[in-house]
Amino acid sequence: MGRGGAQNQPRPPPLKRGELMDIATIIGIVVGLVLIFSAILSSGNLTTFWHVPSLMITIGGTMAATFINYPMSQIISVTRVLRNAFRKDLMRPAAVISLLVSFADKARREGLLALEEEAEELDDAFFKKGIQLVVDGSDPELVRSILETELSFLEERHRLGQSIFLTMGNLAPAFGMVGTLIGLINMLRELDSPDNIGPSMALALITTFYGVLFANLICVPVAGKLAIRSEQEILVKELIIEGVLSIQAGENPRIVEEKLKAFLSPPDRLALEAERENQKAGESYGEVL
Q: How many domains does one find in the chain?
């Protein structure tokens, strides 16, 4: 009975990339807008701050300049990168290490070819490619070169997405100042018409308000979130590269785990230890059965 349970040891489930809304991004934008509008309402009228020509100058000018600065293909591709700011990726480093250790154990017991079926269950293309290269018997240096090249292009795509939002963050206040200049010019031209001074001054000031708000509440924070997401994804990819090469070298699963732990922060190490304890509990239960 014990041996039968050992042969059917539970292992971590296939690694699936899921999409879960990162509520922090939504909360930040919503809370920021609510607090700003509440402050406006407490001391004035919200309609005073609604000015369509100012929006056209600030937002329209920012978008137009961004289109001039980047090729259309890059601007279209950034919509896919933008999802990372609102997505909570389920690929946790601790789960990746746990799965790599289970692969190392299976490879030592049954051979590298036994991982072919495991690779088909992986939803992450990078991870799947690494395992398939190992199963195909590729040279270790070639495996590392292919995966690191793909990782470098991934970093470049992420930097492009960040740079677009940083560019918009720099352009928005500048176009706010353009609107301010337009409003001041119109106001100075019509000083003899007191009725026109108010609308011109509104245009002069509200465009600056829109530019600063759009840049500092949307563009710059989104660029920062994309940078953090990029660092997290790169860490996971580096884990996968080292783990795959360790599996190919036939290293002991325990050594593989200890090597990959070096990539983790203390909280992630605790999460990995908890996950391993749960796995051991499952194995003990299988042996009893």
A: 1
